[in-house]
Amino acid sequence: MTRGKQKIEAQRRNAERNQKPKGSQLEARAVGLKISCPICKVQLANHNQLMDHYASKHPKEKPPSESG
């Protein structure tokens, strides 16, 4: 059993460990999703995912260039 200062320190460490993380997953997701499909407005992380999205969802359309 711990007493005195050890007990207080252990309680403080446990409180820090059990604290919920700051921020939300939705905020982190919004930061990661930077490209959106101009046709259906779905958000994607990079140009390669946009190319795959166009190949599967919009096969008759021409995908936008990487710079635009």
Automatic annotation (TrEMBL):
Pfam families membership: zf-met
Chief place where the protein resides: cytoplasm
Region of interest called Disordered, as start-end residue ranges on this chain: 1-27
GO molecular function, one term: zinc ion binding
Domain C2H2-type residue range list: 35-63
InterPro entries given in the database record: MBS1/2-like, ZNF706/At2g23090_sf, Znf_C2H2_type
Record's keyword terms, sorted: Cytoplasm, Metal-binding, Nucleus, Zinc, Zinc-finger
Residue stretches of biased makeup (Basic and acidic residues): 1-19
A Gene Ontology cellular-component term: nucleus
Subcellular location, record wording: Cytoplasm; Nucleus
Coiled-coil region list: none
Domain of life: Eukaryota
Protein name: C2H2-type domain-containing protein
